[in-house]
Design brief:
9 helices; about 230 residues; mainly alpha; 2 strands; two-stranded antiparallel sheet; homodimer; about 70% helix; about 5% strand
Amino acid sequence: MEDDMQIARESATLRLQVEDKLRKAIATGRFRAGERLVERELCALLGVGRTSVREALRQLEAEGLIVTIPHRGPAVASIGPKEARQLYEVRALLEGFAGRGCAMHATPEQVADLERAVVALEKAAGEGGAALIEAKTSFYERLLASCGNDVVRQILTGLHNRITLLRSTSMQQPGRLPRSLKEIRLICERIAARDAEGAERACIEHIRNAAEVALAVLEKQSNSAA
Amino acid sequence: MEDDMQIARESATLRLQVEDKLRKAIATGRFRAGERLVERELCALLGVGRTSVREALRQLEAEGLIVTIPHRGPAVASIGPKEARQLYEVRALLEGFAGRGCAMHATPEQVADLERAVVALEKAAGEGGAALIEAKTSFYERLLASCGNDVVRQILTGLHNRITLLRSTSMQQPGRLPRSLKEIRLICERIAARDAEGAERACIEHIRNAAEVALAVLEKQSNSAA
DNA sequence: GACGACCTGATTGTCTGACAGAGTGCGGCC
DNA sequence: GGCCGCACTCTGTCAGACAATCAGGTCGTC
């Protein structure tokens, strides 16, 4: 479909780089949920002017990663149990759709790519940490790229970013990882088998299970905090 | 649940007002799809500085209403047949979910509100134009507010805005309005009857039908243009 | 006359400096 | 001890400036 002639276009604009840096800083927990982000500190930290920082913050705000209270400035968004439940609900719905779309529209090369990503993920599972996260991201990127619907891809990417906010609080539960991997493999299998129904169900089930674990932890935290 | 003590908080920040003005200008066709938006012109037009305009544009960009090409500036997004189909697909999925949620979670007052909105909509149908659009918007606002999931509400609001971009090209088809109204009434009915399945089906069916009409027009235009 | 190099104007991307106004927290007054 | 007011901190917004980049036209060469 798309020729691979696209040039890197690496450092597009400064603003985009700032966005990326901030997104990653939030994703990795460099900034904690609820923490305030003071413009000047960010300027100093990143070595750019207020213009770029402010515009990047607007973008992140639109993505739901930060919240801005007028005249008090932005802070990293924090997700309560209620919103988390809603996020997972929508995610299950859309990811089921994406899985179904993959099973129906993915090209053979895309399926092969997806399988490679799963293998890489299983390998990264032993190492944990950043490698695991990266492998998981890579898997989802391929899944979404192959589902045949860019709108879904865009929305789900945003949802993933927001759900990542939960990671700082509800870290991987001990027993969850092996089951999670098995579920992911099942998704990949059903897609490869061109089983749309099965792929959809597998995706939904995967998210349901993940949600269950995450929400349990979150609920407990929220109660103990209150 | 929420006390009705919230003050108007009308003119929050200048930036938000600019956002709103631009959004409306795009929705009403004041700016055509594909038209370039030059910063200084907007500044002059709105009587504000570049800061506010640029940050508002970032927001609209994140919402998908405009596209920005580096060093060439923003332009009103234009939707092709392919993207339109994707938008409608996702919309059907989410709106079905919202309808189901409404049937399950809406309070009796919310249902009554919804019914009032439908009546208003049916009345506005005769007048057409801005009144009709407003009534439709009002109906959807209530539907989404009652579905019990703010994430869905937020995403669907964005999708509606983007789909509005199509209105400038594919105006209401002549015969469509009466059927559309009937479908909407059915949605409301199923919700009032607490029939989750039925409400979901009605919503999906409604969007499917709307999509069919819109896509047909769009396809034709796209072909004749090529 | 066609093609490519160069120049020019228009616009964006970004920084700096400035200033009013909204919140926040502290110290004094009742 | 509680309330009021004041100083301080940030944000929101503007104006001006400048380099980088894009689009289009001009000119020179083959």
